[in-house]
Amino acid sequence: MREEIRRAFSPLHASQSTLEEVLKMAETKKEPQNITPKKIVRTVLIAAVLTAALLTLTAFTVDYVLNHREIFFFDSLEALTQQQSEDHPDAAASYAVPGTAEESKDVETPSEYVSRAMEQGLLENETLLSQKEGDYSRDGWERQVIRSSEDSFYGNVVTEYRTAGDYAQKMVVEDLLDWDLTFLAEKMTPMDGGQIAVLCRSEKDGQLLWVKTHLGYIPREGSRFSLSYEYNTFFDSGEDPEYILNSSYDRSEVFVTQDNVEVLIQEYDGQIWCSAVNRYKTVSIYATGCTFEEMKDILNQLDLRTVLI
């Protein structure tokens, strides 16, 4: 399980200290023996790019509902832990703080993530079925790798890995996603080899179980911008509330885009994290070399409503 958590953490830009803390919590928390990908992903999403810390204090403030997701903001630790204890009386209180830019320097880049996914896969014990080179205009991808595996949560699955430089301008997943990203590719330089779409289907009936896309861009020299989309038929991303201590960030707020999508934006030490959630669909961003206002402008042009409905 430790290795699966490490791999899941890689594209999320979390520091090594964050990873070790999550591994520690995963080992000590009382859970059923079979740790499913659903549990792993949930742990990672809550802790990604954050250093988790266990607390024991009390009192409460304001809440927002973010596309079927509850987000609670607190001005004091006492308020945060009191609300958590009321919501989850049988669980230890916890909160999170972001890692520094220095801690994030060595985190896997989108290009490195794509390379690892294509060469090794993302699930455990995958068996290679085929690999092909293709033409984007004809096939919708430039390289395709298909693997099979027996997953502890999803059962027997077939996972398709697709890459194409053109994904930086348009990401298409049949019957699910048709995302025009031309403006982003014009505003930034698409990262070489940093675009991937991963589709996981049931081996039995071909049902689409989950999709992950990960796209890398370079806003300015020495900076990075990664955009991720995830769809999971079994995991409601807004199911668990989020608890945010305002003083942990330089700035943290819910921003409503021009197409009426609520996005959580957080900034710390020159880094920005964004997330928008609607049930089984999530869009997330990690960026450096980008201001808070520049990020809002980007979010306004991303057409999030279309990809989240």
Model description:
The chain has 309 residues and is α+β, with helices and mostly antiparallel strands. The chain has ten helices and 17 strands. Mean pLDDT is 81; it is low at 1-19 and 25-66. It starts with a helix and ends with a helix. The radius of gyration is 19 Å and the shape is globular. Helices cover 27% and strands 38% of the residues. The protein has helices at residues 2-9, 16-28, 37-47, 77-87, 101-104, 110-120, 136-139, 182-187, 292-301, 304-308; strands spanning 50-54, 62-65, 70-74, 94-98, 127-133, 143-151, 155-163, 170-173, 177-180, 189-202, 208-218, 225-232, 242-245, 251-256, 262-268, 271-278, 281-288.
Provide a quick synopsis of the model.
Helices cover 27% and strands 38% of the residues. With 309 residues, the protein is of the alpha+beta class.
User: Rg, please?
Assistant: 19 Å
**Gap from first CA to last CA:** 33 Å
Q: Average pLDDT, to the nearest integer?
A: 81
The class by helix and strand makeup works out as alpha+beta
Helix content: 25-40%
Question: Shape from CA axes?
Answer: globular
Order of strands in the sheet with the most strands? 5-6-7-10-11-12-17-16-15-14
Unreliable spans are 1-19, 25-66
Number of helices: 10
Q: Tell how many strands the DSSP assignment holds.
A: 17
Q: N-to-C SSE series?
A: HHHEEEHEHHEHEEEEHEEEEEEEEHH
The fraction of residues in strands falls at 35-45%
The major sheet is characterized as: 10 strands, antiparallel
